[in-house]
Amino acid sequence: MNDLRVKFEKTGRAAYISHLDLMRTFQRVFIRSGIALKHSEGFNPHPRISVILPLPLGCRGFGEFMDIETKSVVEPTALIAGINEFMPEGIRALDAAHPVMKPGQIKYARWVIELLYDETGARNHAERIKELFSKESLLISRKTKRGVSEFDLKPYTENLAVSAEDRNICIKGILSAQEPSVSPALVMNAVRKYLPDYAAFTGVCSRISLYDGAMSDFY
Questions:
Q1: What is the pTM of this model?
Q2: What local confidence, expressed as pLDDT, does residue 198 receive?
Q3: What is the number of H-type helices and E-type strands within the chain?
Q4: In CATH, what number is assigned to the domain containing residue 46?
């Protein structure tokens, strides 16, 4: 079997690489490593490589996946070593194996949202955010292809835990990954809407892992 699923991380400055640039980066890395990818047929052939659920721009990922198809059989350990030699700063392959699940089976994602405030007293802010997340409904505005509509965020979040240290507030929890896709930006929009005096001016978001509907690790 020549199809492999590569697990990788995208951190540091690489978090600001767009999806298209990330694809170009991977394509160049495979060429430089000497690992030949299969190409599609037709007038505009392209390498058989796809990133599963691309990250929002500016977000870090510690358990990301891409599917590839190579021209010849490549051992996973050799592939990881080969491409990591040419990876840019912030992108690193972690593991590779034959795909087990289909991308459409992904249902949930574990996120860590770190909010940085421009003043001290984050502990008080955290208590207010905890109260906000305990509400039965969190209506926010959500932009879709059909325009802007009202969206209840609460049914698509689970186990949101809030902690504070100095000027930082950390929100950890599970968000719906597909149908619908709930981004950390929507969580921060809820904070800004309901607690405008407590809204963070900046933050760092990290996707830690992906799960199927039974909360099994995706692979």
A1: 0.91
A2: 64
A3: 4, 10
A4: 3.30.70.580
